[in-house]
Amino acid sequence: MSGLLHALLLDGAGGxxxxxxxxxxxxxxxxxxxxxxxxxxxxxxxAWIEKTIDPLVxxxxxxxxxxxxxxxxxxxxxxxxxxxxxxxxxxxxxxLSVRAFVEPRRxxxxxxxxxxxxxxxxxxxxxxxxxxxxxxxxxxxxERIVEHVVTRVDELxxxxxxxxxxxxxxxxxxLRSKLADLRRRAIxxxxxxxxxxxxxxxxxxxxxPWLDPQHKAxxxxxxxxxxxxxxxxxxxxxxxxxxxxxxGARSAEATNQRLYVLSLITAVFLPLGFVCALFSVGIGGVPxxxxxxxxxxxxxxxxxxxxxxxxVFKKRGxx
Length: 319
Prior knowledge:
CATH superfamily of the largest domain: CorA soluble domain-like
Distance between the termini: 77 Å
Strand content: 5-15%
Low-confidence stretches: none
Largest sheet: 7 strands, mixed
């Protein structure tokens, strides 16, 4: 299977024309901005990357588990970002990597799993509503990726808020496992989103001749949005932890309350049980054994004893 997912020659007006491997090999910078999208696990894609891309950049692009980064390489840009995995059968928190090496006249992107952001960019170009050049492409790509991230973090925050409402309404259900899952998902996302925040901040400060002030301003806005999103993710994680602790405290309090009631019942009936056991022994010498009124006298004594106990408990605030 070919590793060339698509190669599009941008026309500078929002549209593009598709190319094959032969046309890619014959391309020159004077032909226009070329976008090549590759599956980095395919052999022909690896061979093309090894032959075309600088070894230092190539190693970063082919890293099996790269962290987000933005690095200037002369007048070119190495950009690695993580996006939400929207593919069917995968967890959104299993974030996929999008790797890009952007030159003034050529854009190389790599991915293995389908990226909704790259797919949308391809659709935009096919409908003549896409980026017009390398700078526009770079900015639009990070905007689309961050947009999906923001949506997912908002959904996570809403799930935490719903769990908080359940605790307040005392409709606990299976909240413990749900809160643990929310915390796990938040931690998994933060592993990549925290360095991605730093990468976008660095991208806004990188000086590249083909990035004009308008594009850098847009990147700065995306970086600010990413920062706010990471802060919201941290807040959601902390809220889930606090809610889980509150749930645990309520459960412990309910258990202690039940144990307290059982302790009071034991304190009342244990002495009565001892006296009953003492009077029921089957040996001679048990007092009042043949007295017809002894049972009612003993019952009355028990009643007085229980009343005194309850009075003492009430006096000490145990009831």
